[in-house]
Amino acid sequence: MRIESGQVAVITGAAQGIGAAFAAELTARGLAVVLLDLAGDAVRRTAAELGERAIAVTGDVSDPGVLTGLATRTLDTFGRVDLVINNAGIRGSGEPVWEMPAEQWDRVIGVNLLGVVNGIRAFVPHLIEAGSGHVVNVASLAGLSGAPRQSAYAASKHAVVAVSEILAAELEQAGSAVGVTVACPGFVDTPLVADLLAAPGAEPGSEIYESLARGLPAGRSVEEFLAQMRALVDTAIPAPTAVQRILRAVENDELYALPNGDLEDTARDRAERVLNALGSRTE
């Protein structure tokens, strides 16, 4: 898809971080943007900073009716939609799988996975009817390789990758020109990443500290884990850089966008483990 002035983009999770960076980049290219976020005041501020071609809407992506209403409002206001960016996401709590409350699973899956599905269901029929357009589903590095204490998050992001792959195949089978890109960023310099290590209480004797200690392998200290996490965060790329790389993948009609550019080893490691397991069955 060629991104051009005069087009219309819809972005969920647009109040801050990657979503706000998408909005800034696209308005700079001359697009109108419709921004959805649960944080009403924040998304209105973001839209106000972008000018009259930006509209802010408050809503929860886990509610199908919110996305249906967003599609109606977008078409009523602009008469078209060209680019749909399903970006809204939450990290959830960090317990081991067996300790994570059911309501946390429901909430993370509801926002991260069903939020994407709701966006697809609300907008893709209009894109198909128009005969053009593109869907960007923002997954994560966690959609390619999971890590301890992010079970719900990683599960939801793996599912976003799978849904995107299937959506692309189904659109191709239907003979549609609508494109799909699934973005799998690693660490990006956003408030979500900053909050990951800024949570209070990660000190010896605290509940968070003791919870981390229980979930780590024997011989690995909480201090070592936190130091490694901080080192990873220090490699985070700026959100505008991530957005520009993802949009380049959109314009090249690429299914996968890996904006950090350092995920080859991660993808290869998992593929090799699967292939080795298959090989061991034939020996």
UniProtKB/TrEMBL annotation:
<feature type="domain" description="Ketoreductase">
    <location>
        <begin position="7"/>
        <end position="191"/>
    </location>
</feature>
<dbReference type="InterPro" id="IPR020904">
    <property type="entry name" value="Sc_DH/Rdtase_CS"/>
</dbReference>
<dbReference type="GO" id="GO:0016020">
    <property type="term" value="C:membrane"/>
</dbReference>
<comment type="similarity">
    <text>Belongs to the short-chain dehydrogenases/reductases (SDR) family.</text>
</comment>
<dbReference type="InterPro" id="IPR036291">
    <property type="entry name" value="NAD(P)-bd_dom_sf"/>
</dbReference>
<dbReference type="InterPro" id="IPR002347">
    <property type="entry name" value="SDR_fam"/>
</dbReference>
<protein>
    <submittedName>
        <fullName>NADP-dependent 3-hydroxy acid dehydrogenase YdfG</fullName>
    </submittedName>
</protein>
<dbReference type="Pfam" id="PF00106">
    <property type="entry name" value="adh_short"/>
</dbReference>
<dbReference type="GO" id="GO:0016491">
    <property type="term" value="F:oxidoreductase activity"/>
</dbReference>
<keyword id="KW-0560">Oxidoreductase</keyword>
<dbReference type="InterPro" id="IPR057326">
    <property type="entry name" value="KR_dom"/>
</dbReference>
